Amino acid sequence: MLAQIARRLATAIPSIIGVIIVTFLLTRVLPGDTAAYFAGPAATPQAIEEIRAKLGLDKPLPVQFVAYVKDLATGNLGNSLTTGQPVLDDLRARLPASAELTLLGLLLSILIAVPLGILAAVRQGSWIDHLCRIVATAGVSLPVFFTGLLLVYVFYFRLGWAPAPLGRLDFFYSAPPDITGFYLIDSLATGDFETFRAAFSQIWLPAVTLAIFSLAPIARMTRASMLAVLASDFVRTARASGLKPSKIVLGYAFRNALLPVITTLGMVFSFLLGANVLVEKVFAWPGIGSYAIEALITSDYAPVQGFVLAMAILYVLLNLAIDILYGLVDPRVRIEA
Amino acid sequence: MNIRTDIAHGANHMQPPLLDVQDLTVEFATRRGAVRAVEKVNLTLGRGETLGIVGESGSGKSVTSYTVMRILDRAGRIAEGTITFGGVDVGNASESTVRALRGREMSMIFQNPRAALNPIRKVGKQIEDVLIEHVQAQPSDAREKAIEVLKAVRIARPEERYHAYPFELSGGMCQRIVIALALACRPQLLIADEPTTGLDVTTQKAVMDLVVELARERNMATILITHDLGLAAAYCDRVMVMEKGKVVESATAEAIFRAPQHVYTRKLMRATPRPGIGLRDLLPEGTVPEAAPPMPAAMPAKTGEPLLVVENLVKEYPRQGSGGGFAKLFGRSADAEADAPFRAVDGISFEVARGESLGLVGESGCGKSTTSMMVMRLADPTSGRILFDGEDIGAMPARRFARSSFRPRIQLVFQDPTDSLNPRFTAARAIADPLMRMGTGLGGGALRARVEELAGLVGLPTQFLDRFPHQLSGGQKARVGIARAIALDPDLVVLDEPTAALDVSVQAVVLNLLQDLKVRLGMSYIFVSHDLEVVRMLCDRVIVMRAGRIVEEGRTAEVMAAPKADYTRELLSSIPHPPL
Question: From which residue to which does any coiled coil extend (chain B) (predicted)?
Fold first, then answer.
């Protein structure tokens, strides 16, 4: 098993190398002159040249690339020109924020979408099937910034059930000690229930926003996959053997229907993690998506490179996790591996 | 035979029948209103009795049995009639009552056993599920009892098999597991729905013998649903013939065979391949003289150079089978190289003369399909030569062969007439496909004329040409597939079980059509099949294959009459014969 994981990781090396080269080139061909941007509008050409030389941008591309790779090898992703911090530190602070939000949103979504999809398939054509369709269509057709703003309006402005959407934690509280980077887990681990409550009251609204958006693909995929499995021969055998409906649906059909659902989960997760800039903006969430967008707008190439690289590595790990899950669910995949 | 008849007619006369179906009518709700799948069916079955229900597709034989088990689709419902099983009114009983009967008092085994098992659960666990559901075992002793059940269906090394997944077992072994599942709780009634379709003839015999033996041992009533009259007659006391939802005849197996009363039964019986008859004998009475010319005499083996010469043909696959390519893609093939490659075809040589048809016979996995794929040049041989008309076409990579001038001369008729047609092509478009692709230069009117000519050759009325596959019957789709294969006037046609998916009466017509076309167009055939009777009627020579090698070769009549190899004898003796 371990050897298998190692081999699987080794195959990801070429794609990581590809990602490094492509992001390097892309950030160099982006329109906009980094040096001019940071020199300011009143800068003299001479000052711009000085900054350019300081950043190493005056050297030919291959030389810049070698320098970049050398830095990478020592774990140095460069400094962000906007925040003035090392990119690695920025990512380390912001990635857990995005991950915590996305995971919670996804968890909520699974808890609703999977049972809904199963019920819709078992009672095909009933009111619950229609409900599933309506929820899924509504969730996916409302843009996240709209649902986000709507939720803020209702639960913060009107009802006052949620605190102001101003980041991960109200400023009365200090962040829990950094164990996993997830505030909910860290505060629980240190027994600080007060902080836990505060962190939760901040996160639930954006998490619900994400959940509403990701309901659709998961519910639809669960339903379609369940319908296919429920029509298969072995379910007929199980019925002919007199097994209980609950055993047939959950024990036999659902486990067989899981593979496409897991694939969808992986896709939704990776999509949400990097692409929920709008949610992060609405809730002032200090996440990785808004960080990357800001860097991109200011032609701040080091954070962009760092962001893309971090996402690539995350995708590799995510796919590995999905492969391992496949193996747990389906013995046939285990043999192939 | 005698023992079974005694049980059926002796011991149980005083008791009410175990299963009593009266005037059963089943309707299916469709978009065009209710359709009657089964109409006014009556049947009674006593303990220890064996009933065969025979019919072609759409006859309602499966629907009848599904209704007895109450596992019909949601669209189906009992419109009329009663089903009484062991005193329980199955038709009107609550779902929980029927569920308690299913698997415990009445069980079912299915066609395609591998698909009938949960693919991701250990087979032993699946048996445990049934035992625990019907309180025949507690979680503590379930495993022990499951292994006992596996022993009862004669599975060798049951402790190991308990941990196997269905994909690790052969088709015959899977069917044993399905039987074990069905019989785990010692039911009183077993319904076997085409239990051996798709299994090899030797496996079929083993499975049927097991079912009959267990039924006798436990005094269990059995319903055998099959399209194979020979199988039903060989294993059943009584046979019921169904056509279009109605029972047309019901009698003892012997009576049905000695003196079939109904026209349909006679037609079915005629169409069933059996020893001592020719292809023309399969067709319904009275249709032979007008529909077909008298049987052409067997082509004398032409002198001169053979059309196809195969020398020392070998095909090797990496040990890990289908996972090989996938594993390579992900760089995981390291441990696969340790094993010697698997030889699917292990150095075979044969010839096909011009105008000859050669049968390729053997069980699944014997290499007959691999051989035909290599001759078709859809797969590359590992070594050996394939000489077609003197040229070594085996040396040409399969990818490039599609554009070579030999491609039109070797064509293929596929096993599944439905899956081998593009669902978005009309029949005419499907037939025209090779004409358009091989650059015959035909277009417009000339193309249509050629397609109509081909349709005429295969006996497909021209008004069907503009229909899509789903609007055609199985036999019509088979004709389209044949017309497509002969569109380019090939010299050699590879027929890969072309009638395996067809009903016997359709098979009879298609086989005759193939024979007529061969003579008329001077083609050679390679006919891949597991049905020895069909091969006997259609082929001049036959090759019997086993484990990638040729075990026997010769003129078909001689091989069938006096087989030399033990394996051929075993194959021949496994064919079910009616009790005459």
Answer: none
Between strands B524-529 and B342-352, the pairing is: unpaired
Asked whether residue A189 falls in the same domain as residue A255, the answer is yes
Q: Cβ of B71 and A239 within 8 Å?
A: yes
Q: What is the pLDDT of residue B329?
A: 43
A50 with A127, same domain: the answer is: no
Domain annotation covers residue A232? yes
Check whether residue A69 and residue A121 sit in a common domain.
no
- CATH superfamily of domain region B1-105+189-196+218-272: P-loop containing nucleotide triphosphate hydrolases (3.40.50.300)
| B106-109 and B357-361 beta bridge pairing | unpaired
Domain of residue A52, residue span: 2-73
The number of C-alpha atoms within 13 Å of A276 and in the hemisphere containing its C-beta is: 37
**Helix or strand holding residue B410 (H, E):** strand B410-413
Q: CB distance B133–A243 less than 8 Å?
A: yes
Flag if B108 and A232 touch (Cβ within 8 Å).
no
pLDDT string in tens for chain A (337-residue length): 677 778 778 888 888 888 888 888 887 877 777 777 777 777 788 888 888 888 778 888 888 889 888 888 888 888 887 788 888 888 888 888 888 899 999 999 999 999 999 999 999 888 999 998 898 888 888 888 888 889 889 998 889 888 888 888 877 778 888 888 888 888 888 888 888 888 888 899 999 999 988 898 999 999 999 999 999 999 999 999 999 999 999 989 999 999 899 989 988 888 887 667 888 888 888 888 888 888 888 878 888 888 888 888 888 888 888 888 888 888 887 655 4
B102–A239: do the CB atoms touch at under 8 Å?
yes
Query: Quick check: is A87 in a domain?
Result: no
CATH of domain B308-322+340-574: 3.40.50.300
The answer to whether residues A224 and A294 belong to one domain is yes
- Kindly state whether residue A89 falls inside one of the protein's structural domains: no
CA distance A59 to A49: 12
Picking from B105, B106, B118 by the largest number of A CB atoms within 10 A of its own CB, the best residue to mutate is: B118
Contact, B195 vs B175, CB < 8 A?
yes
Number of structural domains (chain A) is 2
Structural domain includes residue A81: no
Enumerate the domain spans of chain B: 1-105+189-196+218-272, 108-186, 308-322+340-574
Contacts of A240 in chain B (CB under 8 A): 69, 71, 102-103, 107-108, 110, 182
Residue pLDDT, tens place only, B501-524: 788 888 888 899 999 999 888 899
Is B321 an interface residue toward A (CB < 8 Å)?
Answer: no
Share of chain B above pLDDT 90, in %: 39
Residues listed for chain B? 580
To 10 degrees, the CA torsion angle through B205, B209, B212, B216? 170
End-to-end CA distance of chain A: 10
Interface test with B, best of A126, A229, A241 (most B CBs within 10 A): A241
Dig out the tokens for B139 from the structure. 């979680």
At A293 the three-state DSSP class reads: helix
Distance from CA of B182 to the nearest CA of A (A): 7
Domain identity same for A144 and A205? yes
Q: Tell me if chain B has a CB within 8 Å of the CB of A330.
A: yes
C-alpha span between B363 and A278 (Å, rounded)? 62
Q: How confident is the model at residue B10 (pLDDT cuts 50, 70, 90)?
A: very low
Which residues of chain B are within 8 Å of residue A337 when distances are taken between CB atoms? 327, 332
- The H helix count followed by the E strand count for chain B is 22, 20
A118 in the same domain as A265 = yes
